[in-house]
């Protein structure tokens, strides 16, 4: 895997009038503090260290380009706002569609004060080839979140997704990709305050790590998840830019950027295949509402407003879920064998006819004998078409058999006659008797309520014990009153797809995929049968009884057995000491996975505090107070069962707290997080309450330790573990 791109020495172009001129040399000190203006060898040029702001000064010139670009963006927006579509639209439907497109464009062209218009610059050695799209004229490109051009149409900022921007993420000293200079910009409060250069073809320049990347990673995490477009790393970029045709599956330790990469991949695909995906649609699937709230602003910040976000439960919401399953029942219902059980149940009504059908037309009677009806039904049953499609085809097939007889008798019936025969009462009745309508929810209801029916459909697939385990204790009377579980809803979705094909989207991102059952993978997979998917997950964080053991298998259930499996191992969230502590659990919970490394420079604060039995809550409150004295967000993570007690204690102590997914702000920084909802979230400081209770909250020890692993890997800056009961031995060791 490629190393992080190093930063070069500060730039002071030899020719001040030419920003692309060769730089003056200076030695860089990789250990220098970026904020220390006294350090003359600092690779990061900041507003303080730069020369006074005149136009010979590179920083001043970059700011001038920023001001000009913002003004150009304002003009582009004004132009979009002034568009008058009355003359060009033929009808109101067209007008509506066009106006919506214009409104989207106006929204996308907003100049957001705290979102820098560009974050990088590439100076190409030669003009990129003419077939490389935008801005082929110049050889210097500013890279930003969106394309901005001036009044003449000349590009001022290039979209980060354009091919010409790619070297910003991928070029290296080994492979400079024709780039002489890569410049990264630093912003403070919306103002351009620093830049950092790498001269990729200069052998004399020392390799250093990027301080701007470091400060981006280290920044406090208050607020929702942000995009990483300015600092996408080469190994991440490869996934982000992988083609729309292929499915990619990313295994990655906590904080390696899986979610970020998945969201940026959607943005990239929408740029590269806008029309196709506008037609087919894109979807991001996440584990729960809190998580979706946490990530919901990333795509809009990248200008993509129309990506649907849902949980798997949302996708399969055909019935109201009010019941729960035992872990055993849920595991069996989620097993891939259930697909065949459901298929048999849906098709159980198909009945081979024992009588023929007689159609009366005028004075004549036409008879199709039973053996011929059987042949027709048999042929439909053997074809790989949906149950509902076959049900629609059957009357036409029978009518066709009637027409063949009419023709043989010298008549010349046309299509209208065939339609009329297909719609005639005897044909409709015969078709319905052979191929009765199937209602997905009713079919599954019968399967789970009627022991004989289940036995018939599950024969050779489920053992009698397994059948007994999934059957409802009390048979339900109707679809509305049944106490459907989440796993039942997935079965109904499977049945619905057996009846009518589920429409496919163009691309689906599936996050925290390790927790899905095979049947849930199928439910997601049928929503991208003709599209592709990005599957993101971490085997070590699987906390369902049916959690994924192998990505190969998961991809097969998803219907994408040829999906490419990639691994991310560089962690951007969890500091070194904290990840090392959490990784003590790995040999037990996912023996084949290597621990993540941490890109963060600070080792992180790790405190493990043992307290007496009656002191636990006070010690936890004290840890929260101590964390609140630091900058950034705080997450108090505890076993679900301990949440109500802790909430009361926090309230009594005057410590206001948020629910997971609620946006943290400078005023409200403490969130009380049930361990079951911690997945995917992060906080600057995390306090983990009583690990033994987190472990005990799960049905088995491995799942419990995995849940704990998730809780221990949410911290960006510091982790405090407070316990009264002994720690799990893997941690204590
Ligand atoms: N290239 C990057 N530059 C800056 N920050 C990054 C980069 N990649 C990831 N991050 C940050 O690291 C943090 C973790 O990223 P993310 O949540 O995507 O990781 P994950 O692999 O999905 O974690 P988990 O397994 O815990 O769900 C986020 O704050 C994200 O913005």
TrEMBL record:
Domain UvrD-like helicase ATP-binding: 231-575
Pro residues compositional bias, start-end: 1-13
Keywords: ATP-binding, Helicase, Hydrolase, Nucleotide-binding
Binding site for ATP: 252-259
Region described as Disordered: 1-58
Highest taxon listed in the record's lineage: Bacteria
Composition skew (Low complexity), residue ranges: 14-35
UniProt xrefs under Gene3D superfamilies: P-loop containing nucleotide triphosphate hydrolases (3.40.50.300)
PROSITE patterns: UVRD_HELICASE_ATP_BIND
Name of the featured protein: AAA family ATPase
